[in-house]
Amino acid sequence: MSQNKSQAGTIQNPRVTWEGCSVLLDINDGDRLVFARLSAAATLKIGNKNFSLQPLIGCPFGSSFQIENGDKGPFLSRFVASMEGNNAQEKEDFESQEISKDNRALVDNNKAQSLTGEDIDAMRRQGATGDEIVDALIANSATFEKKTLFSQEKYRLKKQKKYAPKVLLRRPVARSICEAYFKKYPARIGFLRVDTLSLLLSMANVSANSDVLVVDMVGGLLTGAVAERLGGTGYVCGTYLGVTPYPMDIVRIFNFSDEVCNRIVRSALTELSLTQTVTLEQIHQQENELNMECLSNPQMSSSVSMEEISPSEKEITVPVPENAISLVNKMGKSTKAGNKASQQAIELWKENGFSSLIIAAPELDIWSLLQDILPLLSNSAPFAIYHQYLQKYAKDLISCHGMLHRLPCLTPA
Amino acid sequence: MLPIDPTKKISFSRIVCDGDLVIVYERHDNMKAVKVCQDSVLQNRFGVFKHSDWIGKPFGSKVFSNKGGFIYLLAPTPELWTLVLSHRTQILYIADISFVVMYLEIVPGCLVLESGTGSGSLTTSLARAVAPTGHVYTFDFHEQRAASAREDFEKTEVCNLVTVGVRDIQGEGFPEEFSGLADSVFLDLPQPWLAIPSAAKMLKPDGALCSFSPCIEQVQRTCDTLISKFTDIRTFEVLLRTYEVQEVRMNCSQGDGGNLGSLIRKRRRHSGKGNNVQDNLSSPTVMARPCSEAKGHTGYLTFARLKCLS
């Protein structure tokens, strides 16, 4: 691969949006955070109107948009903030206002503003911009001048948020996704805060070419963050107890390339732990049979009943159809993350061990899990465990204290 | 140290070889980096350890001294390296390092500029984050320390990912050749505001910057300078709190009407055979409390993004 170094960076994490990419929309400086997928048909609701997201396609991440009036009605338009050279002026004003202002003359009777709602609607219909409306509100406020500079600024910002909202286009990466979820739906990510997530990644020495084992019950956030650090090399294998993999929806928000998606795999713990091994010949034979059956049999139901790829004695029904589906997908669609780990990969991990382990599983009994999972790790491999509640975690830590003869234990925050 | 070279990747089959860098683990707060040498010995309070005993053993092994004392041989990682490296300057520790790498959004392939290099603690973790296709260009105005850092990067085998330059970034700014190419910039300088204009030239639009300063006055002045070309300016302080975890048995046998009596603390000894439960004690509860000595303030981390002005 002969890409020069700065180009390699751009391809890994593109800085300009494209049709179909996922974005994080930050409305009014963090007041509202919305994940969206950019397409011609996608819209965003602001106030009581739906705005098309079409203007955002092809713009650099970090651009800001405001509402402008056009022939077909209001639309989102990119604007470039001017460099703040008026900062110095503001400071002078502030310092010269030695006259102390206070609120003795203010009465909260809702009569200070002389513009009515209808007046504002009329202005809008005549094509006034959001900023013009804000200026008009300030001009028509009887009490504005009596307020302190600080209070005036606060008033202006409040009106701007309502009448001249700003939309900031953010790149969905581990940091921004974690922060957004922590703010909006923290329970879905087990209250995993961004600094804790960063510690997990460091403590588990996640880096390119690593084979990281994760138990991710935080919606896929952990898996995605690990995959981001792997950059299309190594593997992140999400393992699970029982037969049903844990949901991994958040991984789809990351805009991962096919290379990175291929590195995100899943495997039941029972599969990883099996002592029996299968020769490579047997594996290839089984895979070939699967290939042929799939191409000739478009019906998914019939493919379930054919030979399993895994040597497991237990019948694991869920992974087999996934494998069949992923083969069909190769004929056109982009790779989906979270495919079943190939038998070759599993054999390799059994031979070498995983480079590290991260567990973020609020509902599991860590002690019993660790007994089964620690043997899968390489010699001297680090592991990190996250738990939201100290008590539960502490109990399990005591239990595994004795197990740590060969593996260094690094306590997360 | 990094698994970029497949032969160096930790695995069940990899063994300690002559010339390897190992981390000798005596206690969780007492470790050192040792280069394995066929004829050398390590002497500590547990006795004398012959390196030749280590060669051929798997990483993570427990090895014994002539007196029967033992240590563990661990494979080096950037975290362990931060704990064992020689301090030529004050360094950054794991809490700050992790947060910086996350918040600067550093992933494989990134180009990162750093000033100053110091003892290379953060630099080693930056190298891990950008591997294998990215690069870290780090600068220090002190020629000797820059040379020591280069030696360390050779030892830890990250030299392909890191270039150390001797340069006064506060006075001269970053080299022009990097203009518009940096994904992230990290500053650990006494007067970072002097380097902000240059950092702004180096960064790609929406690129991330971080400035580490121990004093809030420095932070204030930095933020004032950031405002014209940067947005999303946020300052954090990261504090790591360690807990002491013990199993406590409540003694309920005596006592007048509901008094719990004395708490008997007993460090749980792991035995495969199971607990020795004493008759007059109820089942143990696990208690955790913050350690009485917690690591304190290191510095404030101020982050910002370069405005998209086109």
Automatic annotation (TrEMBL), chain A:
Cell compartment(s), UniProt: Nucleus
Assigned keywords, A-Z: Nucleus, tRNA processing
Matching Pfam families: Gcd10p
Gene Ontology CC terms: nucleus; tRNA (m1A) methyltransferase complex
Any GO BP: tRNA methylation
Major site of localization recorded for this protein: nucleus
Keyword S-adenosyl-L-methionine among UniProt keywords: no
Protein family according to the UniProt entry: Belongs to the TRM6/GCD10 family.
Protein name: tRNA (adenine(58)-N(1))-methyltransferase non-catalytic subunit TRM6
From TrEMBL, chain B:
Protein EC: 2.1.1.220
Main location: nucleus
Keywords: Methyltransferase, Nucleus, S-adenosyl-L-methionine, Transferase, tRNA processing
Primary enzyme class: transferase
Record domain tRNA (adenine(58)-N(1))-methyltransferase catalytic subunit TRM61 C-terminal: where: 69-305
GO molecular function per UniProt: tRNA (adenine(58)-N1)-methyltransferase activity
GO BP term, pick one: tRNA methylation
Gene3D superfamilies for the chain: 3.10.330.20, Vaccinia Virus protein VP39 (3.40.50.150)
One GO CC term on file: nucleus
UniProt keyword tRNA processing present: yes
Locations listed in the record: Nucleus
Reactions it catalyzes: adenosine(58) in tRNA + S-adenosyl-L-methionine = N(1)-methyladenosine(58) in tRNA + S-adenosyl-L-homocysteine + H(+)
Chain residues that bind S-adenosyl-L-methionine: S119, G120, S121, L122, D140, D168, D188
Ribosomal protein recorded as keyword: no
Protein family per UniProt: Belongs to the class I-like SAM-binding methyltransferase superfamily. TRM61 family.
Protein name, entry field: tRNA (adenine(58)-N(1))-methyltransferase
Organism: Carya illinoinensis (Pecan)
